[in-house]
Design goal:
The chain is mostly helical and about 160 residues long. Helix content is about 60%, strand content about 0%. It contains 7 helices and no strands. Helix 4 packs antiparallel against helix 5. It starts with a helix and ends in a 16-residue tail after the last helix.
Length: about 160
């Protein structure tokens, strides 16, 4: 009763509809991203891993790792900057969702995955070592009739 008198019932209904729409959009985007990744995406030697020459350049120019990209075009830098900006926004929204309604931890993980920072691979490896995370990722893939992900320490991975 207090909320309807203070904020008005139209504002409360609008807020509920907006949160529901954002949650559904978030789940659809997550589903799309997970189902369109290659099944070998999380393997160390997959084509998605950095090439050895790119790793050497990163080690030499570790101070400038933000600017070391495979494509040295203006458009490539623009896309890279947008990716970092999206990661920062998702990280901030995820932190806010820890106290507000929403998928806070998933949003934080998604934001961190878009950001370049030291220890990212170790954090990703730690998260993927959990059976619950692997099961959740593969549940999305199973619903889309896609093959399950193959992980580094997975005993079923092809040799």
């Amino acid at each position: 009763m207090y909320l309807t008198q203070t904020l008005g019932e139209h504002f409360i209904i609008f807020t509920l509809l907006l949160t529901t729409a954002v949650t559904l959009a978030y789940l659809l985007v997550m589903h799309y991203m997970i189902t369109h990744l290659d099944a070998k995406y999380f393997l160390k030697n997959s084509p998605h891993a950095a090439a050895p020459s790119e790793k050497r350049v990163r080690n030499i120019n570790s101070k400038f790792h933000l600017f070391t990209r495979a494509t040295h075009t203006t458009f490539g830098y623009f896309i890279y900057a947008l990716k970092i900006l999206l990661g920062i926004c998702l990280l901030g929204v995820g932190i806010a969702m820890l106290v507000l309604p929403g998928q806070g931890i998933l949003t934080i993980v998604l934001g961190l995955s878009l950001l370049p920072f030291p220890g990212k691979h170790a954090l990703e490896k730690n998260l993927l070592a959990r059976k619950s995370v692997r099961a959740s990722l593969n549940w999305f893939r199973k619903k889309a009739n896609k093959p399950p992900f193959i992980f580094e320490s997975d005993p079923h991975e092809p040799q």
